[in-house]
Recover the amino acids of this structure.
């Protein structure tokens, strides 16, 4: 499974578990408009660390954090490639 499909799957799973309506996820979908709240993102980040073995938020060397779904995916793809 690709990094993007793993992330997409977690967004869908967590939104369902938390009773949130998930927006259509495209690369340009703003995370703030995804329908998820901070608890959802915390759950997703924890699960992705288990699944992918990386937490790019712990190892980020710059202050640019993801703003869109596409940014979020690239953030994880870049961390996994290190």
């Amino acid at each position: 499974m690709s990094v993007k499909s793993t992330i997409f799957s977690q967004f869908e799973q967590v939104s369902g578990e938390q009773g949130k309506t998930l927006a259509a996820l495209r690369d340009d979908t703003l995370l703030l408009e995804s329908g998820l709240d901070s608890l959802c993102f915390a759950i997703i980040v924890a699960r992705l660390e288990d699944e992918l073995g990386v937490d790019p938020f712990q190892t980020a060397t710059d202050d640019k954090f993801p703003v869109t779904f596409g940014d979020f995916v690239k953030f994880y793809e870049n961390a996994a490639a290190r």
Remarks:
- The first helix runs from residue 3 to 17.
- The two ends are 18 Å apart (CA to CA).
- The chain has a mean pLDDT of 94.
- The chain is about 55% helix and 0% strand.
